[in-house]
Amino acid sequence: QKITVRKTRAVYNPDMYEQWKEAMQSEMNLGKGLDMNEFRLYYQPQVESITHVMTGAEALIRWQHPEKGLLSPASFIEIAETTGLISQIGEWALHEACKQLKSWEEQGLGHLTISVNISPRHFLYHRFEDFLQDCLKLHGVNPANLILEITENVALEDAKLVEAQIQRIRQLGFTLSIDDFGTGYSAFIYLQQFSIQEIKIDRQFIKNIETDVKSRAIVRAILTLAKSLHMHTVAEGVETEGQLKRLEELGCFEIQGYYFSRPIPIEELNKLLLASPEF
Ligand code: C2E
Ligand code: CA
Ligand code: CA
Ligand code: CA
Q1: Nearest residue CA, atom 7 of ligand 1?
Q2: What is the reported pLDDT for 1?
Q3: Which residues does the UniProt record annotate as the domain EAL (predicted)?
Q4: Helices (H), the chain
Q5: Relative to the alpha carbon of 231, which ligand is closest?
Q6: Is the CB of 239 under 6 A from ligand 1?
Q7: Residue 205 and residue 180: Cα distance in Å, rounded?
């Protein structure tokens, strides 16, 4: 067999070294942050349209950094993804979400769901299913209340592999949701090939839904499609009453966005829930 060796030019570039050093440092810090229990989940409520009753929440990670303060995922998820720490972070988030589901269950709030973001690499990891199984056993929660959000980029991998993983996870009883629907590499292959129960319509299409006919047409089309495929729908990034009204007219099932609440710490969410299940 012929082996081709790609010639690479080893050019010394001080910037590259700095970048590499920074990446190594970030990885070390991220690992330390995990060990020191510095990550937090914030929860953003999801409400049923029209009634505005809370149905669940999306868990969004934050890093309570000892020096830098509260860091948003934009500043560390990418590093975690390239270094592989994302799987550990994901496992941590799933444990936290299960503990919260259990606590709600015990308070008679067993109908509430939690959505957790799973990065493609973690989702396709061959032991992910084992982890989920162990997690269920450990916490004793209803898997249907745990919604795993994956993005379209998962479909960049071998479709057979993705489908097999989806089937295994569905068999365990988890709910699957496509995040940022319509913005990724291939939206329709999901609907055609994979058994997924929920679509989250990306904020990009919601943003101008009041003024832009194109945005509205796209949202309407997604909702029609979802309905005929018996899929659940959630609109993300809803900030105004006008957007909300449009989505309700178009028949979107659930709403998430600053209009109802920003992502908040669990204590705050529980206080809101205690006061009223309605927003
Ligand atoms: P995402 O999954 O699309 O989450 C929605 C993002 O939109 C969140 O940003 C949320 O705070 C923000 N958002 C919610 N409502 C509104 C609104 O009405 N207006 C606007 N302008 N923004 C809104 P956040 O929390 O900064 O998270 C950013 C991204 O980081 C997430 O996007 C997700 O891809 C990723 N992420 C967050 N937590 C995790 C995690 O635990 N694991 C993984 N793998 N990724 C995560
Ligand atoms: Ca829901
Ligand atoms: Ca998400
Ligand atoms: Ca999203």
Answers
A1: 237
A2: 52
A3: 23-277
A4: 14-35, 77-83, 85-106, 120-124, 128-139, 159-171, 187-193, 203-206, 213-228, 241-250, 266-275
A5: 2
A6: yes
A7: 10
